[in-house]
Amino acid sequence: MEIDATGLVVAPGFINMLSWATESLIADGRSQSDIRQGVTLEVFGEGVSLGPLTPEMKQTQRERQATSPTTSPGPRSTRGCAR
User: Fold this and answer.
1) Is there a domain that residue 1 lies in?
2) pLDDT tens across 72-83, in order?
3) What is the tally of structural domains in the chain?
4) 77 lies in a domain?
5) Half-sphere exposure of 44 (CA within 13 A, CB side)
6) CA-CA distance, 10 to 75, in Å (whole number)?
7) 68 within some domain
8) Integer Cα distance of 27 and 21 in angstroms
């Protein structure tokens, strides 16, 4: 597919490294507040992480997520495992 971007600005998507949109993405996967700001990747896990994406979460992502969610281990989660 080719897109004619003549006269338009083309930029890569932004990465939100400290996303707190976990619940809002589950409720409404369109992610309008972030999409309108150019965010295309949401990284969750600041503080407590939800863990790896479950098969159900991955299916929901394919069906209706506007952004790509991913997780990283939160510091409180990893400290809890190290005890």
Assistant:
1) no
2) 766 666 666 666
3) 1
4) yes
5) 18
6) 36
7) yes
8) 10
